[in-house]
Predict the structure.
Amino acid sequence: MDVLRARIRELESRLEAQCSQCAARGALEESAERRRLHEWAIESSNEGIAIFDARRKDFPLVYVNAGFEHQTGYAREELLGGSARVLHGPDTDTAKVERIRKAMAEGREYRAEIISYRKDGTPWWNRLSLTPLRDEQGEVTHYVSVQTDITEAVQSTADVEAALKLLEATNVELTRANRRMRKNLEAAAKVQQALLPGRLPRTKDIRFAWKFRPCEQLAGDSLNIFRLDDDHVGVYLLDVTGHGTAAALLAVAVNRIIAPMAHSTSLVRERDEATGTYRIALPSEVAMRLHRHFPWDADTGQFFTMVYGVIERRTRRFRYTTAGHPAPLYLPAGGEPVTLGSRGMPIGVGDGVYEDQCVEMAVGDRVHLYSDGVPETMNGARNLFGRRRLTAAFAEGAGLSLDDCQDDILARIERWHGGSQFEDDLSLLSFEFVAG
């Protein structure tokens, strides 16, 4: 029995020894497998991985992976045992190179972005990371370098920075140009404003009022009231197609041509050299002369409408012509408003033939001229204010002064529109006969 027990213990001991040997072999095999996977992962990495010997002068390369070969264009045989200086070139930052060498000499980690060169001389941006490896005594024996090609990212950043600089420079230039343009527009607007009626003709028997609301800084509308002689006053209101600079320039040009010059022949007044007297041109003649001065231009596509009239103080007659413009509104004292006759094509369009119309007026009678922007103002539902509402508003304002009546009209227009930016210029010109 004792012999049997001894035999069992012997067998158990052998079995334990065999198990221990198997476990040891398994651990070794597992460790070897892990090493193989680790080496395979390093070798297969797209990143450039290199190992430098920190114990030898100039830190020679002792290992490079396939990613390093691909990045640099060098084969391993050309690199191993040599220095990383082979990757330096004309644009490599020497100060950064010195900082890298100093960090490696001191056993420190270091990261940098530096320009490296491939074997064929092509430069590329290298994001470099250096990590020291130490032995059991803590001495640095090797350095592991991981490098990444960031050329595209750097180039993209450079492109963005260049684009931002260009954008900034463009914005600066646009700001300057806008400032110059704004000053020019302000100057042009002042010129246009200066051509509007300043001092109205001084007459005891006629009162005048006008309002001018451009929808932009420069307007296509223009109007004027001027003395022709002691018995005649000229009035007009015109509307150039479009808005802005081109329309304003044409409006100014027309204004300068129509305005009579003192002691001089003009478009609206002719001097008889034999007698030294002046003849007042008929409104239809003025329109025909303007038509010849401003023929249709297919390139600009511009034309203008207008109503031009001459007020005769002694007879209280208003002789006028219209060229594609809204007809004047005649409001007799105590009577119903009348839309006067309107015939003729816009200036620069059609055959240039215009007719004179005449209305006999009395004390208290009024005439209102307006641009089409007034009745064509739309509300939020895109409905026009319309000439019927405008006519009724003028009639309701008959008991007000001319200025107050025009202010009331504009207030109604603003309420109708909703107070936002108008789409067209608004112009009003009114006159009435009063007891002298």
About this structure: The mean pLDDT is 82.
